[in-house]
Structure to design on (212 residues):
């Protein structure tokens, strides 16, 4: 009987070792996949949920976008780009870094940045002269074509006819929903260092899947 029992014991040992090896392999795969997912989100692409109506009609409340965190390291952002960024400290209470007349947008942000994430569109870059009339952007004296914007003439921020000049390395951010967006008109332009990344696609809800 012994010669028959020995192979069975050996086989059982191999099965136990095989089961243990499979479990270790599974744990390793899950750990690697989780690490890759976290690494991609931290350094490459980050999902972001639209929290307010400031980007309507382009982006609705609750819509989700993907943000490219890499491109800004190799080039500057341009007018028309939709960015996720940290606004100046005090943006939640519409604080400007300096006093300015009611007819002027905020020319200078507060020195510290907030911990909140905002999403807006770049409407002016460093060196541009900007004013806002009837919710529309005028750059260097020329009214801009903005088919993506929902203009408004009767909101508090919709008429800022005094020109300001955007400092080099800064971006003037505005929501597409001009009558319902707290943006650079109130708290000033932001430096490039405060930008998290550029929104490039929507992935939720399914009917909104597409590029920006």
């Amino acid at each position: 009987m012994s010669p028959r029992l020995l192979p069975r014991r050996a086989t059982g040992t191999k099965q136990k070792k095989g089961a243990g090896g499979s479990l270790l392999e599974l744990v390793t795969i899950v750990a690697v996949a989780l690490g890759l997912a976290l690494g991609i989100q931290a350094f490459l692409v980050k999902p972001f949920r639209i929290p307010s109506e400031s980007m309507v009609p382009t982006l609705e409340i609750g819509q989700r976008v993907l943000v490219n965190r890499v491109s800004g390291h190799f080039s500057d952002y341009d007018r028309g780009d939709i960015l996720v960024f940290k606004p100046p400290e005090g943006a939640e209470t519409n604080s400007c870094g300096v006093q300015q007349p009611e007819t002027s947008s905020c020319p200078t942000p507060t020195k510290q940045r907030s911990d909140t994430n905002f999403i807006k569109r770049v409407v002016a870059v460093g060196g541009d002269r900007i004013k806002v009339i009837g919710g529309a952007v005028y750059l260097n004296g020329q009214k801009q074509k903005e088919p993506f914007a929902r203009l408004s003439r009767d909101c508090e921020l919709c008429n800022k006819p005094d020109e300001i000049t955007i400092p080099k390395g800064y971006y003037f951010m505005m929501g597409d929903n001009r009558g319902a967006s707290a943006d650079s008109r109130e708290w000033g332009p932001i430096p490039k260092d405060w930008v998290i990344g550029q929104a490039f696609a929507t992935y939720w809800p399914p009917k909104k899947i597409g590029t920006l």
